[in-house]
User: Which sequence fits this backbone?
């Protein structure tokens, strides 16, 4: 069946879910949500991030690993009252004073005999005699048969109980709203900015009959490999086993460039005369530098990070190499400051920008060019 719902990036889907939660808190909307998307596009991460954002407890139920009694509970006989009653499972939220998210993952892969139990949760917000309080947001997620995943077609009785969102991987959204804020390895960030077509390749891999595809989840794992495995040959084999040999070979070129040129700690400590000579000379290297600067920006380092970021736009004047007159330095600097300002606002560090002469000069130059 065709999913005739609006297609959204992970960041846009997160924004819609947050709006849905706020509408539920206000009392105007009580709904259950369904995130559709290929494996690895970030559905689970959307829900986990929302839980963190709203301060909610996350109850994560993988429906492929449970039986109906795990939701319905188990019966026992009450001899005094002469009736059967139920032990309620502990995996269902019941505190009306605490925000909670009930995440029903892998809904489309759940066995058909489990679905009638799920219906009551999605439509009536209850299972057996247990009712979920208004403080609980219900979100389900799943893949489709066309994604090459284990899945059942969603029947109309189930579909009608949900608000559906179709989540797709979008490179700019992933870099700006997931990878950089969460400190994904700078080489991965630089690679995806240069090769956005390789963020998610599930359809192409299925068409070619390949086992391994690139996905946002796979690139997050590559970041973990980069940080955990020092041996280059071992790391290369692990990356190839995560995103496939072709993508891994291209990524290795970028990773080697970044490893050879990125010296963030030296740059933060360097004097005014030495700093220009420490900047990478490639697009990949400068993009990785921006990502690394964002990761180390804190209350104690922010002003110095701003100075280093401001220096990117001056490289055509401060460095003799011709390559710096061919790179889009203003665009890179603008991207870097946009991300840095966002982090500053999120963490209450905006005062550092007001104190920074380097940022003041950058802002004045942009204003003179009519860019702000």
Assistant:
């Amino acid at each position: 069946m065709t999913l005739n719902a609006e297609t959204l990036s992970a960041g846009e889907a997160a924004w819609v879910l947050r709006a849905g939660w706020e509408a539920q808190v206000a009392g105007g909307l009580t709904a259950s949500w369904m995130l559709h998307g290929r494996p690895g596009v970030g559905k689970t991460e959307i829900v986990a991030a929302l839980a963190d954002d709203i301060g909610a407890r996350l109850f994560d139920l993988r429906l492929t690993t449970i039986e109906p009694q795990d939701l319905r509970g188990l019966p026992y006989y009450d001899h005094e009252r002469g009736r059967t009653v139920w032990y309620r499972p502990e995996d269902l939220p019941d505190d009306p004073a605490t925000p909670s998210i009930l995440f029903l993952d892998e809904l489309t892969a759940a066995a058909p005999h489990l679905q009638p139990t799920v219906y009551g949760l999605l439509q009536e917000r209850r299972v057996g005699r247990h009712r979920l309080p208004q403080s609980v947001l219900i979100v389900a997620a799943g893949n489709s048969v066309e994604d090459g995943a284990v899945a059942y077609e969603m029947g109309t009785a189930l579909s009608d109980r949900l608000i559906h969102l179709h989540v797709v991987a979008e490179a700019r959204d992933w870099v700006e709203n997931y990878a950089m804020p969460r400190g994904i390895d700078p080489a991965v960030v630089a690679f995806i900015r240069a090769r956005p077509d390789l963020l998610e390749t599930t359809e192409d891999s299925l068409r070619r009959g390949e086992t391994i595809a690139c996905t946002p989840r796979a690139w997050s794992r590559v970041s973990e490999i980069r940080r955990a495995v020092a041996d280059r040959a071992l790391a290369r084999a692990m990356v190839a086993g995560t995103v496939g040999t072709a993508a891994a070979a291209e990524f290795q070129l970028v990773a080697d460039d970044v490893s050879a040129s990125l010296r963030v700690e030296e740059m933060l400590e360097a004097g005014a005369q030495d700093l220009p000579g420490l900047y990478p000379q490639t697009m990949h290297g400068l993009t990785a530098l921006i990502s690394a600067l964002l990761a180390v920006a804190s209350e104690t380092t922010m002003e110095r990070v701003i100075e280093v970021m401001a220096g990117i736009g001056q490289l055509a004047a401060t460095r003799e190499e011709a390559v710096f007159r061919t790179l889009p330095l203003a665009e890179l600097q603008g991207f870097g400051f946009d991300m840095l300002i966002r982090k500053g606002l999120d963490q209450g560090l905006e005062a550092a920008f007001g104190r920074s002469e380097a940022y003041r000069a950058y802002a004045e130059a942009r204003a003179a060019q009519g860019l702000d």
Q: What stands out?
A: The chain has two domains: 7-168, 172-368. The first strand starts at residue 7 and ends at 9.
